[in-house]
Amino acid sequence: MENKIKNFKLDKKNRHSYELSKNILKNINLLTKSKNSQKIITEFSEIFNIPFNTLNIKFKRLVYNTFDYKTGKFNKKISFLNIFPELLKFMGIFILIILSKNKIKIKNYDFILHGVQNQRSFERYKALLLKYKKSLVFSEKNIQFKSKKISLIKISNFKLVSSNCIKNKRITLVNIFFKILYISLYSQFNYIYFFNLILFSILKNFTLFEESRGKFFMEDRFYNTCSIRNFFFKKFDGYKTCTPQKNILETCISFFIDIDIFFSLAKEQYSKARIKSFGGRVENVLPAGSFFMEHDWYRKKKDLDKVPQNDVLIMGLNPNSWLQINNLNKKNYEYTIRNWVRKISQIYPSISITIKHHSNLVENNYERKFFENSKVKTVIKGPSKNGSYGYLKKSKVIFSFGSTSTLEAISMDKQSYFMDPGLQSKNFFYGMKNLDKIRVKSFKEFKKKIDYVVFKKKGSKYNKNNFCLNSNNVSKRVFEHLKKS
Q1: What pLDDT, in 10s, does the model give residues 356-377?
Q2: 47, 66, 129, 351 - which has most CB atoms within 10 Å?
């Protein structure tokens, strides 16, 4: 099995991107069912008394994280040649074990938020955090706030771990390390890489939640959930883990999600099916709406005077794995849909058309060159404090290749659609039947939508709650859901 995954290569000529994702999943499952993989998981399960399934989903997630969509292969971290840096890493982890701390100070919280990357992501959840008497934020960055209800712990990989986690286990761990080293040598596969990551995750998360205990736990990004983290949260009296939807569950970010409650944008169960079909665990999917929209649109003062009026708005996507999964996705995004936009601008030279990208996009020189000598405007960082929402509000019809803003716009009573040439964006939409009604498969349909909305002032009628709930009170809705859970 090790050779099979080392030699695996994605067939980027395959036009069915969902099938490609399933093929990646199949190969990961085969590896983790192998005798060697099962031995590693079993050893960890027995020594730390962690359920086998918890460690299994973590192992699978770590294997998936080594997949490089650009090359279409699992990267060099799985190669036996990269085992030597892992030997040094184990020595570093063992030093942390030797220096482990005996004294801990337990603090209890009502709500714990993990994975906050910056001030902006903290602000998105501030209204929810303040609904609890005592909230805790785990972040890798320093976050500014004034409320006494909120505490912050800055996460570091160099903090001492609790001795309670590895009590009477040091010699056993060394023995297991040499067993895994032998397996790596015999199979010519870098199992030590995964051994180190799993061990460090156990030590780190045991220590985090032994000291900081809470009733509810939320992971900021659903594609960053961790089964080991969730296990230790619950081991130390935690009740429910949850995560909000921030993106469409396209397949490249839907592998091995592990969570109790998934707070979806809308009333639908297709996301639950997607999570489970890609090896994940989810107990319940509850509709909540968009935290992004609540913060940037409903909780901020509107400055619409800074945003131009648009007839047609195209929302961009940050280049990511979905763009590299096959040649077709790249062709459709980089050329086909842009060609639709350029063509419509030539047919209707009087209408205003703007392409609005996420503010964190580095550059779009290719696009600017593509639309030279046309009236199509392209914007990355707009002047509005409301981000892209001001653009949604002041546009007559909105399109995107796969942006969540398409769904958020519908909640604003806007005509909004996905540009999906030939209905070929399988990794985005295959099986997500609630989105079928808003997929535009051809230039002819694209033009027809613009004709109806811009010139005839007509449009499609649909139930907004099937796409995105009104996001004016997402924090309250999540709080109420958790209170009832």
Answers
A1: 998 888 888 888 899 988 999 9
A2: 129
